[in-house]
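Section 5: illustrative case.
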């Protein structure tokens, strides 16, 4: 079983999304704090980012934000976090978000969330990241992504064993058990990162 004490969460900054996404974010934050799991996220104060941070803080949990200075300059950063780290670039932000964590959780989001998620999946495929990845499929938001990733396998752009790199989870309450029971992944993954046969 994987020990989960610190997680990185990717999520949206949009404040205009359906309330079902805010509710799921709040429930996830409560579960994490209840299990004494620290959160690292993008440092924003609005949208799902804001709800995540506000809930963790309300429940007396710990949350660290990582945000580029140019975003802070336009007042996007949350001002009441346990810790707020500034970076110069988006690349530095992404690197720090997954430093010294035990797992990644992706909530619904736009291009920023998707870009972060795909980068960490790519790193895992290359054996450069080995932690569990859980994708919260609230309201079937990620159903098209699940289908696309499976198509990557059926069309031989990835191997079937690559499907073990992530887990799609329907309910926030199932995220932690999923992370704890995710299959082990290691640096040897680079040995089968390239598709040269159908095995």
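Designed sequence:
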């Amino acid at each position: 079983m994987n020990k989960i004490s610190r997680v990185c969460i990717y999520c949206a900054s949009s404040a205009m999304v359906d309330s079902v996404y805010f509710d799921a974010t709040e429930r996830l934050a409560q579960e994490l704090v209840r299990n004494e799991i620290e959160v690292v996220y993008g440092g924003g104060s609005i949208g799902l980012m804001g709800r995540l941070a506000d809930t963790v803080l309300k429940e007396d949990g710990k949350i660290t934000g990582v945000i580029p200075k140019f975003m802070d300059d336009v007042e996007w950063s949350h001002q009441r976090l346990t810790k707020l780290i500034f970076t110069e670039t988006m690349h530095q932000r992404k690197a720090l978000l997954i430093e010294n964590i035990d797992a990644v959780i992706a909530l619904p989001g736009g291009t920023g969330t998707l870009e972060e998620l795909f980068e960490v999946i790519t790193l895992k495929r290359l054996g450069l990241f080995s932690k569990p990845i859980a994708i919260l499929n609230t309201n079937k938001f990620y159903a098209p992504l699940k289908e696309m990733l499976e198509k990557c396998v059926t069309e031989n752009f990835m191997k079937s064993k690559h499907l073990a790199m992530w887990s799609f989870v329907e309910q926030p309450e199932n995220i932690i058990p999923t992370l704890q029971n995710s299959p082990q992944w290691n640096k040897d993954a680079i040995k089968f990162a390239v598709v040269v046969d159908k095995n």
